[in-house]
Write a sequence for this structure.
């Protein structure tokens, strides 16, 4: 666990009302309560994951596996035609929706039957994909997670803020954040922008990093101080998106989903580190040790 007080001091922050640490006590415990013995898969949500493109199919596989390991009841993955065999073989538990394009996301999708939607991992940034994303933003009424190339495309849409409803979670790394919102003189200024943006729009922002910051509609920011440098590896963000989708589709608020997801992602990474070390840790290890993180922490 990283030294939060040192982090606060070195970034010129005031450790007061607006800044809080994510810990077990601050999380929604209903996520970890025993399930009703008569429950069925329909009780735990149906998530839609829109991910992958030709050459980036692995991102869709990682996100899909992570979503299912997070307790999701049903998962549909929308992928280009050429990823069909890969997805059906790699994640047999997932249902597949096939795009009209062989290589990219281009299709207008009705999301009414889903509990929550995630879009972005491995999506690529073709113009046709941007138009399909724009249609989704204009028509979707379900809780939504936007990550990776979904964010890069979002940054190309003028006044995109007006298209985001309050049940939206954005998950940028620092460069994606810059494309969306521009540069800031300091980390403190960036956090202040996040606070105001979330308070004004209701949108939750998960700014990924060594200490991930989550801004929510109350104007507060929650920091996750667990996790390790081994998680700085390709696909780690795709896994987080899957975890968030798995939680969000089960009916948790965007705020609670972000806190739970970030914490579990880091806890799984720390469990993976214990078993494989930081140097050898890969994104698939985070998924592998996610069940351990859930059982050991709650």
């Amino acid at each position: 666990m990283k030294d939060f007080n040192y982090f606060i001091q070195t970034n010129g922050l005031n450790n007061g009302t607006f800044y809080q640490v994510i810990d077990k006590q601050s999380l929604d415990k209903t996520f970890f309560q025993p399930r009703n013995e008569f429950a069925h898969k329909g009780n735990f949500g149906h998530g839609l994951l829109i991910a992958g493109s030709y050459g980036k199919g692995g991102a869709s596989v990682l996100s899909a596996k992570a979503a299912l390991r997070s307790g999701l009841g049903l998962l549909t993955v929308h992928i280009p035609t050429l990823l069909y065999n890969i997805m059906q073989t790699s994640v047999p538990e997932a249902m597949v929706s096939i795009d009209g394009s062989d290589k990219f996301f281009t299709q207008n999708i009705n999301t009414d039957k889903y509990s929550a939607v995630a879009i972005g991992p491995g999506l690529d940034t073709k113009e046709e994909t941007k138009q399909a994303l724009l249609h989704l933003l204009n028509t979707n009424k379900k809780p939504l997670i936007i990550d990776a190339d979904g964010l890069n495309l979002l940054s190309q849409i003028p006044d995109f803020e007006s298209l985001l409803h309050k049940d939206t979670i954005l998950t940028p790394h620092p460069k994606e954040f810059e494309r969306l919102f521009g540069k800031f003189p300091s980390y403190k200024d960036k956090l202040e922008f996040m606070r105001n943006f979330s308070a004004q729009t209701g949108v939750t922002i998960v700014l990924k990093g060594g200490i991930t910051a989550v801004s929510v509609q109350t104007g507060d920011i929650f920091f996750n101080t667990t996790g390790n440098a081994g998680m700085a590896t390709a696909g780690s963000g795709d896994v987080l998106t899957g975890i968030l989708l798995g939680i969000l589709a089960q009916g948790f608020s965007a705020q609670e989903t972000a806190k739970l997801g970030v914490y579990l992602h880091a806890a799984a990474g720390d469990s993976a580190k214990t078993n494989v070390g930081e140097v050898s840790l890969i994104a698939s290890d985070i998924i592998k040790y996610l069940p351990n993180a859930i059982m050991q922490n709650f």
